């Protein structure tokens, strides 16, 4: 049986009760519009912890464009069914006022993870990752001691969350989970539903670009060569407007000072397709010098 909670105070009480009963909590935070990627996180939580719980909240602080916020898909009943089928027994689905009482006025308190939140998505979408950091902090504080599961598809977000948890000594263990891809190779995303058939086909340039970057590194190319190969693939697809392509150190998101064979990099790419912003990323390993 699945229960839905709308109040942060009640959520906190329920989480405290679970821990008093000696049960471990596996948390997944979402903005709804759930898909197979979310379901994989729920199943990981339910297989790892005693109780799998989830939050469904479209966080307005993450949206600089009011139209983008308004267009974000919302179907709570469908989302609850996805979560229930994947083993989630308790869901927090609060209103905006329950989380941010002053909205649409800005909160007096902000959360900024310097460096990590200033590049890539942070540079292109000012304030976006601060909004992510703020809501993640608030929900982790309300949940208390738990294991929280995040998908690697939003890799920069995962890095930001890991650092804020460490810096603020929040009582959470952060677990990154592999990207889930559709049969055609496109990373699962709530935004994919907004693509036309032609747009979806064009969006496959992003995973192709990552594959080209991986090959370049495996053959001994440096990070600049990998970025050039990725860029060439994306710009060859006229329906995709490249936002960025990067090859960076996995933990810092900075360009590597030097590359040695066997070194791991993270390749990241973002672009606009049919006016929809899509991101993707991949691990890559440097090959022979």
Description:
This protein is α/β, with parallel strands linked by helices. It has two domains: 175 residues, 3-Layer(aba) Sandwich (Rossmann fold); 93 residues, Pantoate--beta-alanine Ligase, Chain: A,domain 2. 39% of the residues lie in helices and 21% in strands. The strands form two sheets. The protein has a six-stranded parallel β-sheet with strand order 1-4-3-2-5-6, with helices on both faces. The protein has a three-stranded antiparallel β-sheet with strand order 7-8-9. α8 links the parallel β5 and β6. It is globular, with a radius of gyration of 19 Å. The termini are far apart.
Please report which band the strand proportion falls in: under 5%, 5-15%, 15-25%, 25-35%, 35-45% or over 45%: 15-25%
Number of domain units:
2
What structural class is derived from the secondary structure elements?
alpha/beta
Number of helices: 11
Please state the overall shape, judged from the principal axes of the Cα atoms. globular
Main sheet attributes: strand count, strand direction, barrel closure = 6 strands, parallel
- List low-confidence stretches: none
- Span of the ends, CA to CA: 56 Å
CATH superfamily of the largest domain: HUPs
Strand order of the largest sheet: 1-4-3-2-5-6
Proportion of residues in helical segments: 25-40%
CATH topology type of the largest domain: Rossmann fold
* Radius of gyration computed on alpha carbons: 19 Å
The level 1 CATH classification of the largest domain is: Alpha Beta
CATH architecture of the largest domain: 3-Layer(aba) Sandwich
List the helices and strands in order.
EHEHEHHEHHHEHEHHHEEE
| Mean pLDDT across all amino acids | 96
Please provide the count of β strands: 9
